[in-house]
Amino acid sequence: MSLAASEPFDDDLSGLQGVRVLVVEDGWQVADALRLSLEKLGMLVAGPVATTEAARRLVRERTPDVALVDINLKGEMAYALMEWLHERGIRVVVISGYPDLPQSLEKVAATLHKPFTATALQATLQRVMSGDQAR
Q1: DSSP letter (8 states) at residue 115
Q2: What's the pTM?
Q3: Rg (CA), the chain
Q4: With bands split at pLDDT 50, 70 and 90, how would you rate the model's confidence at 47?
Q5: In order of start, what are the domains of the chain with their CATH numbers?
Q6: Which residues are bridge partners to 77 per DSSP?
Q7: Residue 29 pLDDT exceeds 50
Q8: Residue 118: how many CB atoms within 10 A of its CB?
Q9: How many separate helices (H) and strands (E) can be counted in the chain?
Q10: Using 50, 70 and 90 to split pLDDT, how confident is the model at 135?
Q11: DSSP helix/strand/coil, 36
């Protein structure tokens, strides 16, 4: 991911300020960059967490509006977590370095392929939160 701390966002932050977002990412540098970027957008960040178990625990404490989920968490594939989140009405944005993803991810709100920019992150989240589920 190429989220630079100094990379500017689009000035239009509509629809993202105050949105609760869960970050599930096992790479600490990526997770930290995501957290910082999301906070700059005015989002309320839960996590980051690096395991599906920790993600479920956080969701039980405070339900997010959207979750950014890395597909591979230290060798554990997060498909079951994504389904669990979807069943609870939480929008899921998959973040992945894999070029091809399985069809079973049809319920996710969007996919961000690593590396991605802060602008792509913002645009994807705005689209997802506005209800446009186009991937």
Answers
A1: S
A2: 0.87
A3: 13
A4: very high
A5: 26-98+110-116 (3.40.50.2300)
A6: 72
A7: yes
A8: 24
A9: 4, 7
A10: very low
A11: helix
